[in-house]
Amino acid sequence: MLTDEHSGGWEPRTWLGAPAPGGLALPQASPSMAWMYSPRGVFIDDSHVVVADSGNHRVLIWHGVPESDEQPADVVLGQPDGTSEGRAAGGRGPERGMNLPTGVAVVGGRLIVADAWHHRILVWDEVPQRNDVAPDVVLGQPDSSAVQPNAGRECSASTLYWPFGFAMLGPRFWVADTGNRRVLGWSGGIPEPGEPADIVLGQPGEHARGENRGEAVGPASFRWPHAVTGADELLLVADAGDHRVLGWSPHPGGDAPADSVLGQQDFSSADEWPYGPHSGDRFRFPYAVGLDQGRLAVADTANNRVLLWDELPSEPLGGRPADHVLAQPDFSSNGENRWALVGRDTLCWPYGLSLHGDRLAIADSGNNRVMVWERRR
């Protein structure tokens, strides 16, 4: 078990998904409402837990925060029932189906899902209370049956290619348009279908999609932007492929260089830890980032850990080391499940996280589960 010296009082509380008899957390041959297969996204608030059960091409919803291990979900979306799996609802079609959903959140009472490999964002005007409900809004495609990258045409400010993450920050809606190596922003909030973004961040124009702008890594480029978080006047993007988190304050109104970088010593570096210093200020494929009440969490995915800062680092370059590390015995360790058996406080490739007050939900993808951690006051 972890000690307070490194975990800062954070403890794993609830295990959602496959148990691990004998040390491996394996998915069932057939899905259930209680088990998962490679979940890559999670959202938690006081009223819901929502999981992108990515390997089963579905979203699971718990109404209320689960209190017991392996508690079954209340609702499944993307499949006709809790025992079906497969892309596009097992072949029924994309109208109610999904293909590797990732980002999930409840925003202003609306459920939003990044249906990444269908190259679209799905919106339900209310959080569904029953299974197999079709979305009310489809963004990034001309209709609910279309699933082509960039809607089958040239990349533009209204098309998407592997959108993995999103966030609503103040009045702006941001999408990590990962396959186009950019972040799109809508200043008027969640857009209407077909509405182009008014902010294209990370590329010189709406039709460009080159990795790091086709140049060396810099303060205005992305290799693999995967998750977005922040506040009314702060935008943070987990640029997983460049092993860093970029920050803009205030929000950029167009393509602009970042003001800060976390995980690298400067804007021109993209070093992959552990080949650099073994510490709490370097990353290896950080796929998720969360900010709540001034506290910052980063899923340092390939290092099998979550890093926590009690306050957002103020340094523009490099940032100070994290205050706490979860799932590893110290800041210099990075083994999958600490090179041991699966435990309540171990991780294997955490792809997603959601920070809400003293609760932290982690999509522990390699262990086919979601772990809800809590901080002792």
CATH classification, class level: Mainly Beta
Mean pLDDT: 94
End-to-end separation: 19 Å
Q: Low-confidence runs (pLDDT<50, min 5 residues)?
A: none
Strand order of the main beta sheet, please?
14-15-16-17-21
Largest sheet: 5 strands, mixed
DSSP strand content: 35-45%
Describe the 3D structure.
GO terms for molecular function: zinc ion binding. InterPro entries: 6-blade_b-propeller_TolB-like, NHL_repeat, TRIM-NHL_E3_ligases. The radius of gyration is 19 Å and the shape is globular. Helices cover 2% and strands 35% of the residues. The chain contains two helices and 25 strands. The two termini are 19 Å apart. 53% of the residues are buried. The chain has one domain: TolB, C-terminal domain (Neuraminidase, 6 Propeller). With 377 residues, the chain is mostly beta strands.
Q: Tags for this entry?
A:
four-stranded antiparallel β-sheet; 377 residues; 2 helices; mainly beta
Tell me briefly what this model is.
The chain is mainly β and 377 residues long. The protein has one domain (4-375): Neuraminidase. It has helices at 4-7, 87-91, and strands at residues 10-17, 41-44, 48-53, 58-63, 75-77, 101-107, 110-115, 120-124, 137-139, 163-169, 172-177, 182-186, 199-201, 225-231, 234-239, 244-248, 260-262, 286-292, 295-300, 305-309, 317-318, 324-326, 350-356, 359-364, 369-375.
Layout: helices, strands, pairs:
Elements: H1 4-7, E1 10-17, E2 41-44, E3 48-53, E4 58-63, E5 75-77, H2 87-91, E6 101-107, E7 110-115, E8 120-124, E9 137-139, E10 163-169, E11 172-177, E12 182-186, E13 199-201, E14 225-231, E15 234-239, E16 244-248, E17 260-262, E18 286-292, E19 295-300, E20 305-309, E21 317-318, E22 324-326, E23 350-356, E24 359-364, E25 369-375
Parallel strand pairs: 17-21
Antiparallel strand pairs: 1-25, 2-3, 3-4, 4-5, 6-7, 7-8, 8-9, 10-11, 11-12, 12-13, 14-15, 15-16, 16-17, 18-19, 19-20, 20-22, 23-24, 24-25
InterPro entries: 6-blade_b-propeller_TolB-like (IPR011042), NHL_repeat (IPR001258), TRIM-NHL_E3_ligases (IPR050952)
Keywords: Repeat
Protein name: NHL repeat-containing protein
